[in-house]
Design brief:
By secondary structure, this protein is α/β, with parallel strands linked by helices. Helix content is 40%, strand content 20%. Helix 1 links the parallel strand 1 and strand 2. It starts with a strand and ends with a helix. The structure holds adenosine-5'-triphosphate. The site of adenosine-5'-triphosphate has 17 residues, from loops.
Length: 333
């Protein structure tokens, strides 16, 4: 059986880390058909839109995609390609994971953190308005239905991953209506999962707790904006932004991608860390039931990091993207 997967290389370091991830996936011995599609800067050049219909059609037909980071084109007058993808594909939950690997410079040994970010609403709906010449507003949009959906998704995920606790994070003391609704809906969903412990923490308290005692954190459920910030934070806690990985989920498709962005300052130099992209590929394999192949990749990554011979700059080494990718492939047994 061959898996057909839509591939978006994306922008910046995407051109280096996505080919690296595909090389690793191909080395699992599974059979893949890559369906290369465009989004981001290249799509604007070719199709005059950040996400052409052909890309959406490919992902809806294959139900699976692996993507690199995309440049946010809002400053150039285009909608954000990531927001467009999430909207057009109905991706309502973004899972971001970061775990500690031996050999990586993090003081938090054994940290293994999951953030589930609500991905459709909040101020990311992009409803902004100028008020006179010197003021502007953004609308924070939250619905009960979507909050319940993402909360149910989070508790199901926690169960599937064998996790013990979901922490709902919010700022409901100030944003009583919006964050209040998100919190209330998530607490309502929690009642159907008595086997999973559930607590709630204000976002400022959560940020402090994450850097003070991340081992006491497990799965974190957050509205869109807080989730975006916490995703980078958990990657940093585990040693590098280059190590965070994840996927976006909806009823019709799943799109996997690393936590970090396009890193334009190091793009084109062949020095980006491909591990976030590679582990996103492993997460995709696990999602389609290829647990063994996913484990093989994760173990190979762990082994390369532990040996410390081929580390990219963000991990304190001097290896190139190719060096670390080849080292991972050599460890895949
Ligand atoms: P964007 O605008 O797309 O978010 P950015 O550079 O502002 O790009 P990130 O791409 O998330 O934000 O990265 C911030 C910094 O972290 C980069 O400049 C780079 O130094 C480092 N970084 C991120 N990802 C990687 C990676 N995969 N390998 C090495 N360094 C990385």
């Amino acid at each position: 059986m061959s898996y057909k997967i839509s591939i978006i290389e994306g922008d910046g370091i995407g051109h280096e880390i996505v080919p690296a991830a595909l090389k690793v996936l191909e080395h699992t011995g599974l059979s893949f058909e890559w369906d290369f599609v465009l989004a981001g800067e290249k799509a604007v050049e070719e199709y005059q839109t950040p996400v052409p219909d052909s890309t959406i059609e490919s992902i809806l037909s294959n139900k699976l995609a692996l993507k690199g980071p995309l440049t946010n084109l809002v400053a150039r007058g285009w909608p954000s390609p990531n927001v467009m993808l999430r909207k057009n594909l109905g991706l309502f939950a973004a899972v971001k994971r970061a775990r500690y690997f031996e050999g990586v410079g993090s003081p938090f040994k054994n940290a293994d953190l999951v953030v589930v970010r609500e991905a459709k609403e909040d101020t990311y709906a992009g409803a902004e308005q100028q008020v006179g010449s010197d003021a502007a507003i953004a609308i924070k949009f939250i619905t009960r239905e979507n909050s319940l959906n993402v909360a149910n998704f989070t508790f199901d995920l926690a169960r599937r991953l064998g996790r013990k606790k979901v922490s709902i994070t919010h700022k409901a003391n100030v944003l009583k209506l919006t964050d209040g609704l998100f919190l209330k809906s998530a607490q309502e969903a929690a009642k159907n999962y008595p086997d999973i412990e559930c607590d709630s923490l204000m976002i400022d308290h959560m940020a402090f707790k994450l850097v003070n005692d991340p081992l006491d954190c497990d799965v974190i459920l957050a509205p869109n904006v807080y989730g975006d910030i916490l995703a980078d934070l958990i990657a940093g806690i585990c040693g590098s932004l280059g190590l965070g990985f994840g996927g976006n989920f909806g009823p019709e498709a799943a799109v996997f991608e690393p936590v970090h962005g396009t890193a334009p300052t190091i793009a084109g130099q062949g020095i980006a860390n491909p591990i976030g992209e590679i582990l996103s590929g492993a997460m995709l394999l696990s999602y389609i039931g290829e647990e063994q192949a996913a484990k093989t990749i994760e173990n190979a990554v762990a082994s390369v990091l532990k040996k410390g011979e081929f580390l990219t700059g963000d991990l304190g080494g001097t290896a190139s993207t190719n060096d670390i990718t080849n080292a991972i492939i050599r460890e895949m047994k």
